[in-house]
């Protein structure tokens, strides 16, 4: 265990200059490797493409390793990009970035102590009966530790990596330059709207005081819901860089795979209903679909909700436009669905006719089975596989340069994440009944 702890423990590089130098070193290494790959291809009598030159196994490993060690906005943006292959990247580059969805490296004990001392003072250890320096989890912006206070509170404490908040803007600029340099972005594609919104979201996620407020909001909204548990926030130990929460004993959500069919069905249905409530009742959405944000208690059947840093307030206009797609979907009215998708910004007049036709064909293929009155079996992956393959084909089409509004992308990503989760646990859900409540 000690070897694993040591191998995953890496200091977080702090300061914009240090992080920029790290990104510059990464770019240089990628370029050197790409040049060597291009030379080998030319020697074989073939013309190299930027995609083939950059997407070598060694470059893929170098990119994911470096972003994982840097953490912060660089890693977070890599995660976001990997989830949007059909809209932004080639599927190949999205696959390269996908390992960033796994846990990051974490701070060594010395750096952790510096962060905690800055937040709580040099005598912070007197507050705790026990504090485990080995984190329970590590992500792009912070890591989580188990602790117990002298008054008996059992805590999960999220600690933000040092310097992350101050490096968000420069990290995003440097990563965007690297993505363009790789040749994997379509020429002429304007990333600025996405980067501006990502910048705003990351600054929000790096503000743990704001996340504490979102945690408390969801706790109040779901306090009478028998299916969900939201941890209590402890304000006396929370700061802008520290979020102290109640520790809730629970298992990873994907362990539901081993539960009986009725339990799997119920869990998936409740999570889908929760998203519908978030959109149409709360107008407040936890937009991060990472499986780690959902856990469950086998003994009670309750679902535990974690990580509210990506909580987004929805405008009444967006809620109305989202609701407008439900009725045509229920009626299998393809022209009505097309109008609603256009109003949401998911379809654009600028898209080639063949692309619009293919997108609507995919929607039509998915709509019937998904809204069948006898329910949809997420365990039958034939539909999922077909849609994935067709979506990847669209992602390879470099003539597509349409980026939907980021507020819609967040909803799309959350829905896609729940779809994948329901598929993972092979749930059977009558989605038609759920949609009808809000149409």
What does this structure look like?
With 439 residues, the chain is of the alpha+beta class. It has two domains: 2-106 and 163-205, no CATH class; 250-439, no CATH class. The protein is 53% helix and 10% strand. It is built from 18 helices and 13 strands. The protein has helices at residues 2-8, 16-43, 50-54, 57-70, 72-82, 91-97, 109-120, 164-181, 192-205, 208-221, 261-282, 316-323, 326-330, 334-344, 353-370, 382-395, 406-424, 431-436, and strands spanning 128-131, 137-138, 142-149, 154-160, 228-229, 242-246, 251-252, 284-286, 294-296, 303-305, 311-313, 376-377, 428-429. Strand 2 and strand 3 form a beta hairpin. Helix 11 packs antiparallel against helix 17 (406-424). It starts with a helix and ends with a helix. Mean pLDDT is 80; it is low at 83-89.
What's the short version?
The protein has 439 residues and is of the alpha+beta class.
Helical segment count: 18
Largest sheet: 5 strands, antiparallel
Q: What level of helicity do the residues show?
A: 40-55%
Arithmetic mean pLDDT = 80
Beta-strand fraction estimate = 5-15%
Total number of β-strand segments?
13
Cα gyration radius (Å): 23 Å
Count of individual domains: 2
**Through-space gap between termini:** 52 Å
Which term fits the overall shape?
globular
| Poorly predicted spans | 83-89
Structural class: alpha+beta
């Amino acid at each position: 265990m000690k070897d694993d702890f040591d191998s995953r423990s890496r200091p977080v590089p702090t300061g914009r200059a240090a992080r920029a130098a790290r990104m510059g070193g990464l770019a240089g290494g990628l370029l050197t490797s790409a040049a060597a790959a291009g030379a080998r291809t030319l020697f074989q009598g073939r013309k190299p493409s930027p995609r083939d030159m950059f997407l070598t196994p060694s470059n893929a490993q170098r990119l994911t390793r470096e972003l994982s060690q840097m953490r912060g906005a660089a890693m977070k943006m890599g995660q976001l990009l990997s989830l949007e292959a059909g809209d932004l990247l080639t599927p190949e580059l999205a696959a390269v970035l996908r390992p960033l969805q796994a846990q990051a490296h974490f701070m060594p004990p010395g750096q952790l102590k510096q962060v905690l001392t800055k937040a709580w003072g040099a005598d912070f250890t007197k507050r705790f009966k026990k504090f485990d320096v080995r984190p329970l989890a590590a992500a792009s912006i912070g890591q989580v530790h188990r602790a117990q206070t002298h008054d008996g509170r059992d805590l999960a404490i999220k600690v933000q990596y040092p310097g992350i908040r101050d490096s968000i803007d420069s990290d995003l600029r440097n990563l965007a330059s690297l993505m363009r340099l790789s040749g994997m972005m379509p020429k002429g594609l304007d990333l600025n709207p996405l980067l501006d919104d990502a910048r705003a979201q990351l600054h929000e996620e790096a503000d743990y005081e704001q996340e504490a407020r979102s945690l408390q909001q969801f706790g109040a909204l779901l306090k009478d819901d028998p299916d969900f548990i939201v941890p209590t926030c402890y304000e006396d130990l929370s700061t802008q860089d520290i979020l102290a929460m109640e520790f809730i004993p629970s298992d990873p959500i994907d362990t539901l795979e081993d539960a009986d069919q009725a339990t799997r069905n119920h869990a998936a249905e409740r999570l889908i209903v929760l998203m519908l409530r978030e959109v149409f009742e709360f107008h407040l959405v936890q937009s991060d679909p990472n499986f780690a944000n959902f856990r469950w208690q086998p003994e009670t059947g309750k679902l535990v909700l974690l990580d509210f840093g990506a909580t987004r307030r929805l405008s009444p206009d967006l809620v109305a436009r989202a609701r407008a797609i439900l009725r045509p979907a229920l009626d299998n009215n393809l022209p009505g669905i097309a109008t609603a998708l256009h109003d949401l910004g998911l379809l654009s007049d600028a898209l080639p006719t063949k692309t619009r036709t293919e997108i609507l064909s995919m929607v039509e293929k998915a709509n019937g089975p998904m809204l069948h009155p006898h329910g949809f079996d997420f365990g039958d992956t034939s539909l999922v596989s077909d849609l994935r393959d067709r979506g990847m084909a669209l992602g390879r089409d470099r003539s597509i340069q349409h980026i939907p509004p980021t507020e819609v992308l967040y909803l799309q990503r959350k829905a896609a994440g729940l779809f994948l989760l329901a598929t993972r646990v092979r749930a059977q859900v009558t989605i038609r009944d759920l949609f009808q409540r809000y149409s």
